[in-house]
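Run Helix-turn-helix domain-containing protein through structure prediction, thanks.
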Amino acid sequence: MDFLQTLAMLPDQLTRIEALMDANTKALNQATEQLGNTRYYEADAAKYLGVEQKTMYHYRQRGLPYEKVGRIISYLRKDLDAWRSAGKVHA
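Sure, done. The structure for Helix-turn-helix domain-containing protein is below.
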């Protein structure tokens, strides 16, 4: 195969590479969304943030989103990440 034939194949190869990259980006976005929707119970959330479990009460009082069903409190990972990114965790 000579240089011109190889050069002529490049657009098709680039199209295939772009399609693979798009598929990988979509899969990565789906995985990231699923991970963000992971629910942590209070002890696990405290460990994830690197604080004592009793500190989670204070964070809730200061606006950390949570869900309470009966006596069980849980947090979404994406909310914990946003809280940490906002600089509200000083572990």
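The chain has a mean pLDDT of 89.
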